[in-house]
Amino acid sequence: MTSTSTSTSTAAIQRVATTPDWYEPYRISQAIRAGGLIFVSGQAGFEEDGRTVEGGFLEQGRQAFRNVERVLAEAGATFADVVKVGIFVRNMAANLDDVIVLREEFLSRPYPADTLLEVSSLAQPDWLIEVEVTALDR
User: Fold this and answer.
1) How far apart are CA 21 and CA 60, in angstroms?
2) pTM for the whole thing?
3) Is the per-residue pLDDT at 1 higher than 60?
4) CA distance linking residue 41 with residue 102, whole number of Å
5) Stretch 6-18: mean pLDDT, rounded?
6) Distance between CA atoms of 81 and 31, rounded to whole angstroms?
7) pLDDT at residue 124 above 90?
8) Among the residues of the chain, which ranges form H helices?
9) Strand-pair category, 82-89 with 37-44
10) What is the largest CA-CA distance in the chain?
């Protein structure tokens, strides 16, 4: 695990990153550990080399959740530790049923709190979904 700690007057902040760290060139942490929580940055449907997976929304969504899972594992957590999910989609009407499928595949009861938003664009023009989570740091 790659980690960098920063102490503030209230808490220590630790960076969590996988190897390779696909977010380093963008000056973004894959996750931050602070205050008993793990905050995982938005993950999209891309491979380690940065290529967007083929196959449409559901395949991109599965890869986004697998990317989240990988970052959580690097922090010593799993989806069972997740308390909040944020899902950003480019087309809510076309993809709501697939979002429910993804939630069922990767999350379990008690389901975490969740925010689902439609956005006009994501960081790459071919991205259809992005997923972020907050998890307990056990």
Assistant:
1) 19
2) 0.90
3) no
4) 18
5) 74
6) 14
7) yes
8) 57-74, 92-106
9) unpaired
10) 47
Strands 82-89 and 129-136: antiparallel
Kindly list the strands in the beta sheet with 113-118, ordered across the sheet, starting from the edge strand earlier in the chain: 5-7, 12-16, 31-34, 37-44, 129-136, 82-89, 113-118
Provide the pLDDT confidence category of residue 9 given band limits of 50, 70 and 90. Answer: very low
Q: What is the pLDDT of residues 75-120, one digit of tens each?
A: 999 999 999 999 999 999 999 999 999 999 999 999 999 999 999 9
Structure tokens at 6: 């920063």
Nearest to 102 by CA among 113, 87, 91, 117: 87
> Are 36 and 137 spatial neighbours (Cβ–Cβ below 8 Å)?
yes
Q: What does residue 100 show for φ and ψ, rounded to 5 degrees? A: -65, -40
Instruction: Please report where in the chains the tokens 């994501």 appear, as a residue.
Output: 122
The beta strands (E) that lie in the chain are given as 5-7, 12-16, 31-34, 37-44, 82-89, 113-118, 129-136
Which residues lie closer than 8 Å to 39 by C-beta, 6 or more apart? 31, 32, 33, 132, 134
Degrees to nearest 5, angle at CA 71 with 116 and 9: 90
The answer to whether the CB of 125 falls within 8 A of the CB of 44 is no
